[in-house]
Amino acid sequence: MRCMVAGEAGNLVAQMRRGVLPYCVLEVMGDTERYGFELVHALGEVDGMVTGEGTIYPLLARLRRQGLVETSWRESDAGPPRKYYRLAEPGREALAEFAQSWHRLRDSVDDLLNGTGHGS
Amino acid sequence: MSSTDPEQMIAEYLRELDIAAAALPADRRTELIDEITAHIAEARAQAGSQADAADRIAAALARLGSPADIVMAAEQDVTDVLPQYVPVSYSDQGSLTAQEIVAIVLLLIGGFLFGIGWIAGAVLLWLSPKWRVSDKLLGTLIWPGGLAATLIVIVGAGFIAVTGKSTSTVGCTSRVIINCTGVAHSAPFFMIIISILVILIGLAAPILVAIRLVRRARSGPANPTGLASV
Q: Does the global pTM surpass 0.80?
């Protein structure tokens, strides 16, 4: 087991963020369909969620390839055509599953941290 | 960004993106460029013709992040996941398809079809991607003709043993051992043991080889340098 050093926590957080990001994207999509720009914007607003908004597009593409998300291009009178994203059924299920696991994990970690006061 | 003119900033950004995205497979590249272009077009539409349009667009491009980072994110997806990057020879991790089953069956009993069946089995064996070369050699060398060869050898040897010359059966011409005059056996006891062993080995070997080939086909990639499939 490697020795942990101060500052590694930052790297760990980055990794954790990378892990949960797909599910955050699914969550932000919600029950309606959103077009790329507004989706990306909403996510970018969440503190520390992404380094660059542009990196969300490859993630969206992967979610589509995995069948979790459906997309369609629509003409818009506001300007250029827009690509709309909506949750597909498998995406809904994946999100529900994640929410459960996340709550469980979050609660156990919180209990641990609160129990010992300020960690060691 | 060397320019403060929105159109130029955008053109420069998209040019950088185009160059960086050359590393991606064609369909991903097109998709990504389309999406980023649409994103930027949206940002531009929202900035409109306001006084600080240039600033807004510059801010939008900054929030997008560098084209290199975006392409890197797309590339990670490429190496993480994609079926098209798994060599065609094992779209499933390891399994018996019809080709393998037919090959094994033909190797075992194809010899009964005038030997041609076995040859067909051997061809299928070598053509299959599911086996390493060592497996294929095993299947070929043990042995040509499969069970048919075994049977031929057994029958032939039995025929020779019964009708061939033997010091204890001089004058015995009958194929039935106990009818040979004055002699109950035409072969010493240990010869019988050896014959039985030979028969057992002769039957067992092709069957054991067949079982091994089945196991190997099911146990996974034959090519240790291939990528793992998802």
A: no
Report d(CA B152, CA B127) in Å as an integer.
28
Strands A34-35 and A69-76: what pairing? unpaired
What six digits make up the tokens of A111?
């209990």
Q: Report d(CA A53, CA B223) in Å as an integer.
A: 40
Torsion of CA B12, B13, B17, B20, to 10 degrees: 70
Q: CB B35 to CB A36 under 8 A?
A: yes
List the domain range (segments joined by +) for residue A60: 28-115
Residue A114 predicted with pLDDT over 80? yes
Task: Give the whole-number percent of chain B exceeding pLDDT 70.
Answer: 75
Domain count, chain A: 1
Chain A residues with CB-CB distance to B65 below 8 A: 51-55
Domain definitions of chain B by residue range: 6-85, 98-219
- Using DSSP's 3-state secondary structure scheme, residue A20 falls into helix
Write down the ipTM of this complex: 0.82
**Does the residue A87 lie in any domain?**
yes
Element (H, E) at A70: strand A69-76
User: Which CATH number covers residue A68?
Assistant: 1.10.10.10
Q: Which of A54, A27, A26, A51 is nearest to A40 (CA)?
A: A54
Q: CA of A120 to nearest chain B CA: how many angstroms apart?
A: 36
Helix-helix angle B6-20:B53-64, to 10 degrees: 20
Cβ of B154 under 8 Å from any chain A Cβ?
no
Q: What is the mean pLDDT of residues B42-54?
A: 85
Q: Kindly report, residue by residue over B20-31, the tens digit of the pLDDT.
A: 999 899 999 999
Query: Which pLDDT belongs to residue B78?
Result: 58
**Residue A63 phi, psi (nearest 5):** -60, -35
